[in-house]
Amino acid sequence: MMMKTSLVLAGAILLSAPAEAQMLHSPTQAETCASVQPPPEQSLAILNLLMVESKKFTGLADLLKQLPPEAMAKMATAQAQEKERQAKDWPWLCRYAADNAAVIQSGVRPKVVFIGDSITENWKIADPSLFSETMLDRGIGGQTTPQILLRFYQDVVSLHPQVVHIMAGTNDISGNTGASTDGTIVRNIRAMIDIAKANGIRVVLASITPSKTFIARPGVDPSSRIAAVNRELKALAAEKRITYADYFPLLADNDGGMDSSLGNDGLHPNRIGYARMRVLTDKVIGSHPK
């Protein structure tokens, strides 16, 4: 009886199919990314507030109050767009797809690709002189190590850089894409290192920058976990014989948080903070032959 029912269902499916069936095709990058929204329009206004040396914010509500009215009016729309985008492109492969295609077409081999989360993404706003056609920023705010790992081949390996600068882990600790153990963070970064080395790309592994507060999660102190993960990352760099860029002591106060003069929200460096980082960045990048 069951076989008879299955045959009837199969026949119904076949009869409902069009007479001339069309083969499914692999979509092009343009087709894949056509419906994916660009970064929210108010994000630049927020980034500018984070860069100004004299600004201080006690929490997310305080930060949002400082936005111009037109940016606030777009906030709800932007949040809805972001939710839709994550459903279509969780690692945000489309974010740099067009830029990557242009780099590949140009034939210019990048010297360094910086990949990471908002600390990396904000860098080009804070210190645009660091970046050029051979020094590329591939940071995306809010991303966790599994998202960065998923886009590592497209946003790093396919560009054939000499060096990759990896900075990630803050948002894993924050729980942006769900709970994550310290071991999972380190394993995801280990995978990025292995992929880079397998493709002849030298690696600079950055520490997680200091913080005692997450602006969107008041009351949460991540400093002890940041210190623990950084110890594991330093050990991983030694094991893999790669350069470890320890930005933590350059930015930290005596309690393991971000020095208040170097960041406005306790998490993201401002321009003064990035200027401190630049000294070490130039040193570790400069240690690699051109």
Explain what you see:
The chain is an alpha/beta fold. The chain has a domain at 91-286: SGNH hydrolase (Rossmann fold, 3-Layer(aba) Sandwich), CATH 3.40.50.1110. Helix content is 49%, strand content 8%. It is built from 16 helices and 5 strands. The protein has helices spanning 2-16, 29-33, 43-51, 60-65, 69-73, 75-88, 97-106, 118-121, 123-126, 145-150, 152-155, 170-174, 182-198, 223-240, 248-251, 271-286, and strands at 112-116, 135-139, 163-167, 202-206, 243-245. It has a 5-stranded parallel beta sheet with strand order 2-1-3-4-5, sandwiched between helices. The chain is globular. It starts with a helix and ends with a helix. The model is unreliable at 7-17 (pLDDT under 50).
Superfamily (CATH H level) name of the domain at 91-286:
SGNH hydrolase
Spatial order of the strands forming the largest sheet? 2-1-3-4-5
- Terminus-to-terminus distance: 73 Å
Radius of gyration: 22 Å
Shape type: globular
The class by helix and strand makeup works out as alpha/beta
For the secondary structure, the number of strands is 5
What is the average per-residue confidence, as pLDDT, rounded to a whole number? 84
The number of helices is 16
Low-confidence stretches: 7-17
Q: Provide the β-strand percentage band.
A: 5-15%
